Amino acid sequence: MKFKAFLTENGINLLEKRILPALDKMGKISHLYLTRDHAIFLHNLLNGHGIQSIAQFKKEAIFEDYKISSQNDDKIAFSIDLSLLHRALRSILTIYAESGEAHNPSEFNFGRLQIKLVKKFPPHSNQPMPFLTLETKGSKSAVVQDVPISKPLSRADVQELQMALDGAQEMPKTLVKVSELNSLQNFVDRMKHVGDVMGVSISKYGDLHLQISTTSITLGAEFRKLMVIGERTDGRPEDGNLSAQSRTERAVQRGDAMTVQGSCLTVIFQFFIPGTRQTDKSISLHCRLPVLDPGSN
Amino acid sequence: MSSSAVEGETPDLVCELDNVQGIVDALTSVRWKRHQDAVVELSEHGIVIIVEEISCLQAKVYLQRELFVRYEYGARGRPRFGVSLGLFVDCLKTFSVPGHSNILEIQYPGPDMQLLLKSIDSVDACLYAEVRTRIPETVSWDYNFEPAGSIPLSFTVKSAALKEAIDDLEWPGSSIQIILQPDPPSVTFRGEGHGDLQIDFNYYANSELLIAFSCDRQISHSYKYKFLRATTSNIPSSVIKDNRGSKLTIGRGGMLKVQHLVSVAKLSAPHNHVDSAGYQQPSRIAYIEFFVKPEVEDDTGSDS
Question: How far is A211 from chain B (nearest CA, A)?
Answer without folding.
Answer: 9
